[in-house]
Amino acid sequence: MQREKGTKAVFAPLPASSHLSRRHRCRCSLSSQPLDVVTPLTVSFDIASGVEKESWDMSTPEKIEATGKKKEDGNALFKAGKYARAAKKYEKAVKYIEYDSSFGEEEKKQAKALKVACNLNDAACKLKLKEYKQAEKLCTKVLELESRNVKALYRRAQAYIQLADLDLAEFDI
């Protein structure tokens, strides 16, 4: 389709009811100046890149790889001071490997290490965001996996101090 000089392509999303499966639709109209005649044109296309697979569509190695990638993305955001966005990456990472009953022994070890790292990093984000109760819960999750994890004990103590629970903070330290 050729456009004449001075025409504009206008894209607008169709109502949510028109979205089917993973196909996304948009409405496109071509118009020339002045906008007295608009010819609607519906364009359907698949978005191939940027669409993440759901965890149930992934194999175990894919889940572990995706978790590692999200963790690295979170680390970069944390270093940039974008704590809320980093926390979301860590949360998403843990969701990939939340259910590990089908994992082999080696994969369970990898998943456990990633869960510990992501939950600790998420807790660090929550402390920066002053979400102390959330930080405490995340550290407790880590301690359920590794009861003597020093970082988890320290970060949970920091959260307890901010929550004015000095007895529990002292117990962790």
From TrEMBL:
What is the official name of this protein in its record? peptidylprolyl isomerase
Per its UniProt record, what SUPFAM superfamilies does this chain match? TPR-like
Q: Tell me the GO molecular function terms.
A: peptidyl-prolyl cis-trans isomerase activity
Which reaction(s) does its UniProt entry say it catalyses? [protein]-peptidylproline (omega=180) = [protein]-peptidylproline (omega=0)
Source species of the chain: Acer yangbiense
Per the similarity annotation, which family is this? Answer: Belongs to the FKBP-type PPIase family.
Q: Which keywords annotate this record? A: Isomerase, Repeat, TPR repeat
Q: Which InterPro entries match?
A: FKBP4/5/8-like, TPR-like_helical_dom_sf, TPR_rpt
Query: Which Gene3D superfamilies does the annotation name?
Result: Tetratricopeptide repeat domain
Q: Where are the transmembrane segments?
A: none
**EC number annotated for this UniProt entry:** 5.2.1.8
